[in-house]
Amino acid sequence: MNSSTVSLTDVSSYLPGPPIGADYYARFAESDDLRDNVMFRAPAFRHHVAPDESAIDMVERAAQGLIERHGEDVIAGADVLITHTQAPDLPFYGAGGGIAHRLGMRPSWVLDLHNGGCAVFVLALNVARQLLASGSGRTALIAVAQNAAGQVFDQPGVRRKAQASVPGDGAAVGLVTRSDQSPILDIECRTYGEYAGEMTLAPDPPRKWWQPGPGELCIGFTEGKITKVLARGNRQVPEVALAVCDRIGLSSRDIDLLITNQPNRAFLRNWREALELPAERHRDTFDECGNLFGAGIPINLDRAISDGQVRSGDLVMMAAFAHAGDFAGAAAVRWGGRV
After folding, report:
1. CB 38, CB 163: distance < 8 Å
2. The CATH number of the domain covering residues in 6-180
3. From 322's CA, which of 259, 270, 298, 315 has a CA 20 to 30 Å away?
4. DSSP 8-class letter at 283
5. Residue 279 burial class via C-beta count within 10 angstroms: exposed 0-12, middle 13-18, buried 19 and up
């Protein structure tokens, strides 16, 4: 083994509660100028975090698959913990310290990433790979929790909006090691700072998120913003995936399984067509889980491994963009199978 080789060794995931059907939102739907927009065509099902379920709870449940396959000592002994929570349970705090405590960890590095958004798993892989390759440890955990669907989007005022029926909740934990089991071949991360801050909260009446007031927090979508996001997302995800393909000397048609974030059906279709891949080589759980935000890639990878869609030796490409297009990333892994 090359001492600097870093692998995405395994991943496990968790979906909270029973599936919630589209009819749940149909009961609350009101007239909405954006209801027919391709961004907000509802999935058949999604899952919601329970009212008393924290992001730490979700990650602990997601980690059980890794513990069963690799043992408690491997997880507790990880040197690096990288986390992301879509809707932090407490202001100011990331979930890293609480997750480390719950999993019995004493890591040298605890990093809470907020800027990665829907592409955070790729960003976290990049950070973990750099730290482990530099000698800062032998094992890293990446823990991602998407918990906004059952909290932010299910507020009584927000769930009447078209945007509310699309998100779903879930969590996943990835195990990254210095090994050649499932080597990370290459990663591309790009920041588009000119688009930072374009995804905004829009309570009615307007206020800052921390100020008291009657208006519930929701995403400030407009037709103009949606048009820009669609254009950026359609462009950015294929661009970063093709950049990785170019550096590893392969065509996009050599990708055995493409796993992306899944904001809506239009993006999923456009991305696989841009990369010249058939539908069966692009993992799509949108109608089962909805938009899982940053947890989408690792949850879909876990499901693909578990049901045999990805096999030992396959080239897996993970690609996503974040927020209104301020970040995008792609990572290629040569999957070596679970051991």
Report:
1. no
2. 3.40.47.10
3. 315
4. -
5. exposed
Quote the CA–CA distance of 292 and 221 in Å, as a whole number: 18
- pLDDT, tens digit, 9 for 90 and up, residues 53-72: 999 999 999 999 999 999 99
Predicted local distance difference test score (pLDDT) of residue 2: 61
Largest CA distance in the chain: 60
One fold for both 6-180 and 185-335? yes
Amino acid at the residue 219: I
Cβ(166)–Cβ(264) below 8 Å: yes
| Closest listed residue to residue 152, CA positions, set 217, 93, 96, 197 | 217
With 0-12 / 13-18 / 19 or more C-beta atoms within 10 angstroms meaning exposed / middle / buried, residue 171 is buried
Is the pLDDT reported for residue 3 higher than 70? no
185-335: CATH, from 3.30.310.50, 3.30.70.1790, 3.40.50.300, 3.40.47.10: 3.40.47.10
Reported pTM: 0.97
